[in-house]
Amino acid sequence: MTDWTKKKYDEYYNAYVPWLEDQYLAWFGENKTSYTAKDQLNKTKLTNSSSLNSVQDGVNDGVAGQFKSDGLLGGVGDLVSKEGVNRAERGDSGLGEKELAAKGEEQKKKGWGESIPGAGWITGGGGKK
């Protein structure tokens, strides 16, 4: 594969696959947040009893269902799916090239304690005097 072909494939893959995943999950009334929550909760079986596992499955579905688009926390679920999960899958920080370059230069100038938000107390800076 040529470099150009690989680059174009990666560009289209990163642009369209998250959208296709969102459309597929929306067909079933889910978003990536609710689907991931349900998947992770289903991995935590507490007992070997089938009756208790069915109760736990019901609770898991109820909790994960709150993050569905029509759930109580649907807005949070949709926002995390779109702005969090999709960007993380693409490796997108949401910043433009200039902002990323400026942020990188800013981080190089800071010490390790200053680069952590709220950790100015570690290096003795950032507090009120």
Describe the structure.
The chain has 129 residues and is mostly helical. The protein contains six helices and no strands. The chain has helices spanning 3-27, 32-42, 50-65, 74-90, 97-109, 120-123. Helix 1 (3-27) packs antiparallel against helix 4 and helix 2 runs antiparallel to helix 3. It starts with a helix and ends in a 6-residue tail after the last helix. The model has no long low-confidence stretch (mean pLDDT 76).
Q: Determine the N-to-C terminus distance.
A: 61 Å
Globular, elongated, flat, extended or rod-shaped: what is the shape? elongated
Order of helices and strands: HHHHHH
- The count of strands amounts to 0
Biggest sheet character: none
Mean pLDDT over the residues: 76
**Rg (CA only):** 21 Å
Low-confidence residue ranges: none
Binned strand content: under 5%
Protein topology:
Elements: H1 3-27, H2 32-42, H3 50-65, H4 74-90, H5 97-109, H6 120-123
Helix pairs in contact: 1-4, 2-3
Write a concise synopsis of the structure shown.
This protein is an all-alpha fold and 129 residues long. The chain has helices at 3-27, 32-42, 50-65, 74-90, 97-109, 120-123. It contains six helices and no strands.
